[in-house]
Backbone:
């Protein structure tokens, strides 16, 4: 359990990702205990039914009114990028946005820069921007962090501690956050789409749909583990599987001729561009 300047955490906007964070912090991680206990976590959600659900499920304090939220050392901003300014302004300098104490603000809103957040928050507030991805729900996530103008090393350490229980944590410069969003933030959807496509291709070749999906999924899972746990680069592993004149090389040649690499590059570029658009002043 954290006993430090970041021991009380408030999640503003406890939707899918916000709840995933709460669940991860409260989940024991044998042989270690949970990072936080329910007394250290609170949440804000605008819908009363949702607030009641979070309280019943996790035993945490939850309110519908951000201005009435309990005090916290760390405020995690988990609202949609388009709603960020509205949520902060509605609080009107009260609750977690009151200028009465130093708080660390951690934002997981795609595209919203630390500078934009600093303009909304009390003057001099430390801001850390985080870009986690959905596999954090099973402790296999990837999160990138960057610091705003007023955030120091202690603030980054606090944010890193909060996300390290979910998997990989990397610190990057803010100019790279849109690219991070496009690669790891949106990446799980690309992988899911690849599994779908591989399943459908197998079905077209005669496999039963369920069998084809199981084979495709296990292939992705096993290959990812080989890359993560082994000592081969992706290129080395790919080459080791290809035999001259064999089936794998025939498949890769056909994919390359159809623009496999360029299609993926265009998709990542589109996600990166959209992330920048979300962060542009309205």
Residues:
């Amino acid at each position: 359990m954290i006993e430090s300047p970041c021991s009380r955490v408030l999640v503003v906007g406890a939707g899918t990702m916000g709840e995933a964070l709460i669940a991860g912090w409260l989940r024991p991680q044998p042989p270690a205990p949970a990072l936080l206990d329910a007394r250290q976590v609170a949440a804000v959600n605008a819908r009363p039914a949702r607030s009641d659900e979070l309280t019943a499920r996790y035993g945490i304090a939850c309110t519908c009114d951000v201005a009435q939220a309990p005090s916290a050392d760390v405020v995690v901003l988990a609202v949609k990028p388009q709603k960020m300014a509205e949520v902060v302004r509605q609080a009107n300098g009260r609750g977690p946005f009151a200028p009465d104490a130093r708080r660390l603000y951690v934002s997981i809103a795609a595209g919203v820069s630390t500078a934009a957040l600093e303009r909304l928050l009390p003057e001099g507030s430390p801001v850390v921007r985080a870009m986690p991805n959905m596999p954090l729900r099973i402790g296999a996530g990837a999160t990138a962090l960057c610091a705003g103008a007023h955030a120091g090393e202690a603030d980054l350490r606090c944010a890193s501690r909060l996300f390290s229980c979910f998997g990989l944590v990397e610190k990057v410069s803010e100019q790279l956050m849109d690219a991070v969003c496009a690669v790891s933030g949106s990446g799980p959807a690309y992988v899911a789409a690849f599994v779908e496509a591989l399943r459908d291709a197998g079905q077209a070749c005669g496999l039963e749909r369920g069998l084809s999906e199981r084979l495709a999924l296990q292939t992705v899972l096993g290959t990812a583990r080989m890359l993560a746990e082994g000592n081969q680069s992706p290129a080395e592993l790919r080459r080791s599987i290809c035999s001259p004149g064999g089936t794998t090389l025939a498949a890769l040649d056909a994919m390359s001729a159809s623009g496999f690499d360029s299609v993926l590059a265009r998709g990542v570029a589109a996600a990166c561009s959209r992330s920048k658009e979300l962060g542009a002043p309205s």
Q: What stands out?
A: The first strand starts at residue 9 and ends at 12.
